[in-house]
Amino acid sequence: MPELPEVETIVQRLKNLVASKKVAEIEVLREKSFSGDLQNIVGVMISDVTRRAKLIRIHLSNDLSLLVHLKMTGQLIYVDDEIRMGGGHPTSDWVQDLPSSHTRVVIRFSDDSTLFFNDQRVFGWVRAMDEKMLDNEFSKYGPDVNSPDFTFEYFWSRFDRRTITMKQFIMDNDVVAGVGNIYACDALNLAMINPFRRANEINRDEAKRIYEAMRKVINLGIKLKGATISDYKNVDGFSGGYQDVALVYGKEGESCKNCGGKIIKEKLAGRGTYYCPSCQI
DNA sequence: GAGAGTGTTGTAAC
DNA sequence: GGTTACAACACTCT
Q: Closest nucleotide to A183's CA, by C1' atom?
């Protein structure tokens, strides 16, 4: 479910909440969701929380990190006494039920606060990794879409006569990391490019428009703390705001903000794809 | 109730 | 090698 802006939002919040806390206990409720040796984590302090692509890295004060991938339906929810007591907090009514039937891993800290990893579909995971394993994992990804390494010249160089559709191209994590279905649809609408166009039919000017649009929608997503379509919540239970300004994603039948045309939904490579056929050419 | 759809990505097959 | 189809799983929606 979450894409780069959602993960970035979670990381920013999590960093403030759990940095310098000590892991008191880890409870694994679903074997498939966790891998690593618990012995090496219990009693260790969290030193930092960072992000690479859509991965959340919880740095430990030994040489390990807990790497978290939320995939489609993962959530990291932080709960402490203050949150449990409520006080108008959006999570107050449902945090009482945690762990829920979807809770897969529970990390308890020495101050009694708790981090829940919930994941309805069990695609996501939490894995303890050393430097070498992390390098190997991160090597699968191209530069983050919002990083300085993702330059237009780099992006253009990756077109290289590829015949896949533009939507698949910008969602290819090896080309650029962090663009999922929502932001891919919106970026192509902003750039006025049809998602079914093939990468090798795109000229340099069009590529430039796509490049700028990708950066723009992702940065707006980060600013609005992500998009809440169904399961996504920030660490503290708040929803994101991007869905309210989305250009085409989830807007089938509505008017295109760009040209007033009617937004349609079609399937592209098995994924729901929203676009405006009148201005995205 | 059956069947399709869901924001991800790894794998196997072509 | 690039591209495509599908699987992993558990729900909701039509």
A: B7
